[in-house]
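U., I forgot to send this yesterday:
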Amino acid sequence: MPSPTYLSEQDHVQISAAVTQAELQSAGEIVTILADRSDGYTDIALAWAALAALLALSALAIAPDFYIGLYDRLIADWGHQWSPRALFTLAAGIATLKFAAVLLIQFWQPLKFWLIPPPVKTARVHERAIRAFRIGAERRTLGRTGVLIYLSMREHRAEIVADEAIATKVDPEVWGEAMSAMLAHVREGRIAEGMCAAVEKVGAIVAPHFPRADGDINEIPDRLIEV
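Result:
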Protein backbone atom coordinates (compact mmCIF):
# COMPACT_ATOMS: atom_id res chain seq x y z
CA MET A 1 0.00 0.00 0.00
CA PRO A 2 1.60 3.32 -1.07
CA SER A 3 2.13 5.98 1.57
CA PRO A 4 -0.17 9.00 1.38
CA THR A 5 1.31 12.30 0.25
CA TYR A 6 0.96 14.88 3.00
CA LEU A 7 2.68 17.85 1.37
CA SER A 8 2.53 19.62 -1.96
CA GLU A 9 5.53 20.63 -4.03
CA GLN A 10 5.06 24.18 -2.76
CA ASP A 11 5.16 22.90 0.83
CA HIS A 12 8.49 21.21 0.10
CA VAL A 13 9.85 24.46 -1.29
CA GLN A 14 8.63 26.35 1.77
CA ILE A 15 10.30 23.95 4.20
CA SER A 16 13.56 23.90 2.24
CA ALA A 17 13.60 27.71 2.26
CA ALA A 18 13.08 27.69 6.03
CA VAL A 19 16.03 25.33 6.48
CA THR A 20 18.23 27.51 4.27
CA GLN A 21 17.24 30.60 6.25
CA ALA A 22 17.84 28.93 9.62
CA GLU A 23 21.26 27.69 8.56
CA LEU A 24 22.29 31.26 7.67
CA GLN A 25 22.29 31.96 11.41
CA SER A 26 24.52 29.12 12.54
CA ALA A 27 26.92 26.34 11.62
CA GLY A 28 24.17 23.80 12.27
CA GLU A 29 22.91 21.54 9.51
CA ILE A 30 19.19 20.80 9.80
CA VAL A 31 17.66 17.66 8.29
CA THR A 32 13.86 17.34 8.06
CA ILE A 33 12.01 14.05 7.60
CA LEU A 34 8.26 13.50 7.33
CA ALA A 35 7.22 9.85 7.67
CA ASP A 36 3.81 8.30 7.12
CA ARG A 37 4.61 5.76 9.85
CA SER A 38 7.68 4.58 11.71
CA ASP A 39 6.91 0.86 11.75
CA GLY A 40 4.54 -1.71 10.29
CA TYR A 41 3.61 -3.03 13.77
CA THR A 42 3.03 -6.53 12.40
CA ASP A 43 4.04 -7.99 15.76
CA ILE A 44 1.37 -5.96 17.56
CA ALA A 45 -1.32 -7.01 15.07
CA LEU A 46 -0.32 -10.67 15.51
CA ALA A 47 -0.33 -10.27 19.28
CA TRP A 48 -3.93 -8.98 19.26
CA ALA A 49 -4.98 -11.82 16.95
CA ALA A 50 -3.28 -14.39 19.19
CA LEU A 51 -4.97 -12.88 22.25
CA ALA A 52 -8.37 -13.15 20.55
CA ALA A 53 -7.71 -16.81 19.73
CA LEU A 54 -6.63 -17.50 23.32
CA LEU A 55 -9.74 -15.81 24.71
CA ALA A 56 -11.91 -17.87 22.36
CA LEU A 57 -10.29 -21.09 23.60
CA SER A 58 -10.76 -19.93 27.20
CA ALA A 59 -14.43 -19.26 26.53
CA LEU A 60 -14.78 -22.73 25.02
CA ALA A 61 -13.18 -24.27 28.11
CA ILE A 62 -15.46 -22.30 30.45
CA ALA A 63 -18.72 -22.85 28.53
CA PRO A 64 -18.28 -25.84 26.21
CA ASP A 65 -21.99 -26.63 26.10
CA PHE A 66 -22.76 -23.27 24.50
CA TYR A 67 -20.34 -23.81 21.61
CA ILE A 68 -21.25 -27.46 21.18
CA GLY A 69 -24.93 -26.59 21.12
CA LEU A 70 -24.31 -23.77 18.65
CA TYR A 71 -22.40 -26.13 16.36
CA ASP A 72 -25.13 -28.73 16.53
CA ARG A 73 -27.82 -26.17 15.70
CA LEU A 74 -25.84 -24.82 12.75
CA ILE A 75 -25.30 -28.19 11.10
CA ALA A 76 -28.58 -29.71 12.36
CA ASP A 77 -26.77 -32.91 13.22
CA TRP A 78 -28.79 -34.25 16.15
CA GLY A 79 -26.98 -37.53 16.22
CA HIS A 80 -23.49 -36.11 16.29
CA GLN A 81 -21.16 -37.80 18.77
CA TRP A 82 -18.55 -35.57 20.40
CA SER A 83 -15.31 -37.53 20.50
CA PRO A 84 -12.06 -35.98 21.83
CA ARG A 85 -10.92 -35.54 18.24
CA ALA A 86 -14.10 -33.67 17.33
CA LEU A 87 -13.73 -31.40 20.37
CA PHE A 88 -10.13 -30.57 19.48
CA THR A 89 -11.18 -29.89 15.89
CA LEU A 90 -13.89 -27.51 17.10
CA ALA A 91 -11.41 -25.73 19.36
CA ALA A 92 -8.87 -25.38 16.55
CA GLY A 93 -11.53 -24.07 14.17
CA ILE A 94 -12.80 -21.45 16.63
CA ALA A 95 -9.27 -20.28 17.46
CA THR A 96 -8.34 -20.05 13.77
CA LEU A 97 -11.46 -18.07 12.89
CA LYS A 98 -10.93 -15.62 15.76
CA PHE A 99 -7.25 -15.20 14.89
CA ALA A 100 -7.98 -14.57 11.21
CA ALA A 101 -10.88 -12.21 11.89
CA VAL A 102 -8.94 -9.99 14.30
CA LEU A 103 -5.94 -9.95 11.99
CA LEU A 104 -8.08 -8.98 8.99
CA ILE A 105 -9.94 -6.14 10.69
CA GLN A 106 -6.58 -4.57 11.50
CA PHE A 107 -6.04 -3.92 7.82
CA TRP A 108 -8.24 -0.91 8.52
CA GLN A 109 -5.43 1.43 9.49
CA PRO A 110 -7.28 3.71 11.94
CA LEU A 111 -8.22 0.69 14.06
CA LYS A 112 -4.76 -0.84 13.76
CA PHE A 113 -3.04 2.28 15.06
CA TRP A 114 -5.67 2.79 17.76
CA LEU A 115 -4.87 -0.68 19.10
CA ILE A 116 -1.14 0.02 19.36
CA PRO A 117 -0.19 0.93 22.96
CA PRO A 118 1.09 4.54 23.18
CA PRO A 119 4.44 3.54 24.77
CA VAL A 120 5.08 1.20 21.82
CA LYS A 121 4.40 4.01 19.34
CA THR A 122 6.73 6.33 21.23
CA ALA A 123 9.52 3.77 21.35
CA ARG A 124 9.23 2.82 17.66
CA VAL A 125 9.19 6.46 16.52
CA HIS A 126 12.26 7.17 18.65
CA GLU A 127 14.09 4.16 17.24
CA ARG A 128 13.23 5.10 13.66
CA ALA A 129 14.32 8.70 14.24
CA ILE A 130 17.66 7.53 15.64
CA ARG A 131 18.21 5.25 12.64
CA ALA A 132 17.31 8.04 10.23
CA PHE A 133 19.64 10.41 12.05
CA ARG A 134 22.55 7.98 11.85
CA ILE A 135 21.99 7.58 8.13
CA GLY A 136 21.22 11.16 7.19
CA ALA A 137 22.97 13.48 9.64
CA GLU A 138 25.25 11.89 12.23
CA ARG A 139 28.91 12.69 11.61
CA ARG A 140 28.17 14.02 8.14
CA THR A 141 29.34 17.50 9.09
CA LEU A 142 32.86 18.56 9.96
CA GLY A 143 31.81 20.07 13.26
CA ARG A 144 29.32 17.35 14.21
CA THR A 145 26.53 19.92 14.07
CA GLY A 146 23.68 18.01 12.42
CA VAL A 147 20.13 18.19 13.79
CA LEU A 148 17.25 15.98 12.67
CA ILE A 149 13.61 17.05 12.90
CA TYR A 150 11.50 13.91 12.47
CA LEU A 151 7.69 13.87 12.26
CA SER A 152 5.73 10.58 12.08
CA MET A 153 2.12 11.14 11.05
CA ARG A 154 0.31 7.89 11.89
CA GLU A 155 1.70 7.79 15.41
CA HIS A 156 1.19 11.54 16.02
CA ARG A 157 4.72 11.80 17.36
CA ALA A 158 7.90 13.74 16.61
CA GLU A 159 11.57 13.63 17.57
CA ILE A 160 14.47 16.06 17.45
CA VAL A 161 17.90 14.43 17.47
CA ALA A 162 21.18 16.37 17.59
CA ASP A 163 24.73 15.38 16.68
CA GLU A 164 27.48 15.04 19.25
CA ALA A 165 28.77 18.63 19.31
CA ILE A 166 25.31 20.15 19.73
CA ALA A 167 24.11 17.51 22.19
CA THR A 168 26.95 18.34 24.56
CA LYS A 169 25.87 21.99 24.76
CA VAL A 170 22.09 21.86 24.44
CA ASP A 171 20.02 20.00 27.03
CA PRO A 172 17.39 17.67 25.53
CA GLU A 173 14.66 19.62 27.33
CA VAL A 174 15.50 22.74 25.30
CA TRP A 175 14.15 21.12 22.15
CA GLY A 176 10.71 21.11 23.76
CA GLU A 177 10.08 24.66 22.58
CA ALA A 178 10.74 23.69 18.97
CA MET A 179 8.59 20.59 19.37
CA SER A 180 5.69 22.61 20.80
CA ALA A 181 5.90 25.14 17.99
CA MET A 182 5.73 22.37 15.41
CA LEU A 183 2.92 20.34 16.97
CA ALA A 184 0.72 23.39 17.52
CA HIS A 185 0.48 23.71 13.73
CA VAL A 186 0.43 19.99 12.93
CA ARG A 187 -2.56 19.35 15.22
CA GLU A 188 -4.56 21.73 13.03
CA GLY A 189 -3.39 20.16 9.79
CA ARG A 190 -0.75 22.77 8.92
CA ILE A 191 2.12 20.35 8.50
CA ALA A 192 4.40 22.54 6.41
CA GLU A 193 3.94 25.49 8.77
CA GLY A 194 4.72 23.21 11.70
CA MET A 195 7.93 21.95 10.15
CA CYS A 196 8.96 25.52 9.33
CA ALA A 197 8.26 26.65 12.90
CA ALA A 198 10.41 23.82 14.27
CA VAL A 199 13.21 24.62 11.84
CA GLU A 200 13.15 28.29 12.89
CA LYS A 201 13.26 27.39 16.59
CA VAL A 202 16.08 24.87 16.09
CA GLY A 203 18.11 27.45 14.19
CA ALA A 204 17.63 29.95 17.01
CA ILE A 205 18.67 27.39 19.63
CA VAL A 206 21.82 26.32 17.79
CA ALA A 207 23.00 29.79 16.69
CA PRO A 208 24.34 31.05 20.05
CA HIS A 209 26.45 27.92 20.51
CA PHE A 210 27.59 27.52 16.89
CA PRO A 211 27.51 30.86 15.04
CA ARG A 212 27.95 30.70 11.31
CA ALA A 213 31.58 31.21 10.29
CA ASP A 214 32.89 32.95 7.19
CA GLY A 215 33.17 30.49 4.36
CA ASP A 216 30.70 28.08 5.93
CA ILE A 217 29.38 25.63 3.31
CA ASN A 218 26.13 23.73 3.14
CA GLU A 219 27.15 20.14 3.95
CA ILE A 220 23.71 18.49 3.84
CA PRO A 221 20.93 19.27 1.32
CA ASP A 222 18.14 21.47 2.71
CA ARG A 223 15.26 19.55 1.11
CA LEU A 224 12.61 17.79 3.13
CA ILE A 225 12.68 13.98 2.96
CA GLU A 226 9.17 12.50 2.80
CA VAL A 227 8.94 8.73 3.33
